[in-house]
Structure formats: structure tokens, C-alpha cells
């Protein structure tokens, strides 16, 4: 479970998504306009039926307003089934050419009854210590 008090949170159809971004100074090269973040994600099923995470959609916006969209099957190579009361956690990462940005998106879910629906990933800010004026 994400233990830090500072995280972003969204609830859609009893599926709670929490995200905590972390700037990775050791993987970033500000002098080369290369900034890297990890983000920890927790997906909790607060509902009464199992769901399966089928796919993901990310919208990544850098400090200049340039948008990159990413779509794919599952997350980190998995399409987990999340039972009622259970959580699925994973960590991934994102590089940007600017010292700040914002990410948001959706997870495509399949209910135990076979219904497809989207779950919101909360918009979260990517801010490095090298950014003196954040746009987020």
C-alpha cells in the first residue's frame, strides 16, 4: 500500500487508483534536458465483483504543452484480476525533456460480468527540484 501521505487519488465505479510520483535524480541529466520520474500505482477494488485490468491509456504533457499519448495492453506486462477488497500495485517510470509535466489517463477494465469500462487515473504532477517555476 502506498504509505506516503502525499499521493493522487481517483475513484471510478468502486475502483480506487492512487499514484505517487518520485523524481529520480540519479537517472536524470538536467544539463541534457533529460528528467526521469518513477510512479507508484495502487489499484484497489472497493466493489463487490472482480475486475480485470485489460489496457492502459496515458496522456503525458511536458512543461511546453507537448502531449504524448501511450496506449497498451495491461501494465508492466500483466493484465491482473483484482478481487473485491484486493489491491494490485506496480511501479513504472516516465522520462521528459522538461523539468516538469503532468500525466493522466485511464485503465480499461473488464467486470466479472463481462462489461468493459474505463477507470480514471488521477492527473498527477511531475516536478523536479530543477524546476524553478512549475506550470502544474
Query: Low-confidence spans: pLDDT under 50, at least 5 residues?
Result: none
| DSSP summary, beta strand count | 9
**Proportion of strand residues:** over 45%
Decide which structural class fits the backbone: mainly beta
Shape: elongated
* Overall average residue pLDDT: 93
Sketch the topology as an H/E string, one letter per element: EEEEEEEEE
Biggest β-sheet description: 5 strands, antiparallel
Instruction: Please count the helical segments.
Output: 0
Q: Summarize the amount of helix as a percent range.
A: under 10%
Q: What's the end-to-end separation, in Å?
A: 26 Å
Radius of gyration: 16 Å
Plain-language structure description:
There is one protein chain. With 136 residues, this protein is mainly beta. Helices cover 0% and strands 59% of the residues. Strands 4, 5, 6, 8 and 9 form a 5-stranded antiparallel beta sheet that branches. It has a 4-stranded antiparallel beta sheet with strand order 1-2-3-7, with no helix packed on it. It is elongated and about 50 Å long. The protein starts with 7 loop residues before the first strand and ends in a 9-residue tail after the last strand.
Structure described in brief:
The chain has 136 residues and is mainly beta.
What's the topology here?
Blueprint: E1 8-12, E2 15-23, E3 35-45, E4 51-62, E5 67-73, E6 81-82, E7 87-96, E8 100-111, E9 116-127
Antiparallel strand pairs: 1-2, 2-3, 3-7, 4-5, 4-6, 4-8, 8-9
Question: Which labels suit this protein?
Answer:
136 residues, mainly beta, 9 strands, 0% helix
Amino acid at each position: 500500500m502506498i504509505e506516503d501521505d502525499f499521493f493522487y487519488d481517483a475513484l471510478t465505479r468502486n475502483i480506487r487508483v492512487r499514484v505517487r510520483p518520485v523524481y529520480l535524480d540519479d537517472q536524470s541529466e538536467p544539463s541534457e534536458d533529460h528528467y526521469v520520474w518513477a510512479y507508484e500505482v495502487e489499484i484497489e477494488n472497493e466493489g463487490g465483483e472482480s475486475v480485470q485490468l485489460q489496457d492502459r491509456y496515458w496522456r503525458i504533457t511536458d512543461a511546453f504543452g507537448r502531449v504524448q499519448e501511450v496506449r497498451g495492453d495491461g501494465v508492466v506486462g500483466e493484465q491482473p484480476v483484482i478481487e473485491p477488497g484486493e489491491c494490485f500495485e506496480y511501479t513504472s517510470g516516465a522520462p521528459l525533456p522538461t523539468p516538469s509535466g503532468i500525466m493522466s489517463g485511464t485503465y480499461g477494465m473488464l467486470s466479472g460480468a463481462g462489461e468493459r469500462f474505463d477507470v480514471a487515473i488521477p492527473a498527477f504532477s511531475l516536478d523536479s527540484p530543477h524546476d524553478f517555476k512549475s506550470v502544474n
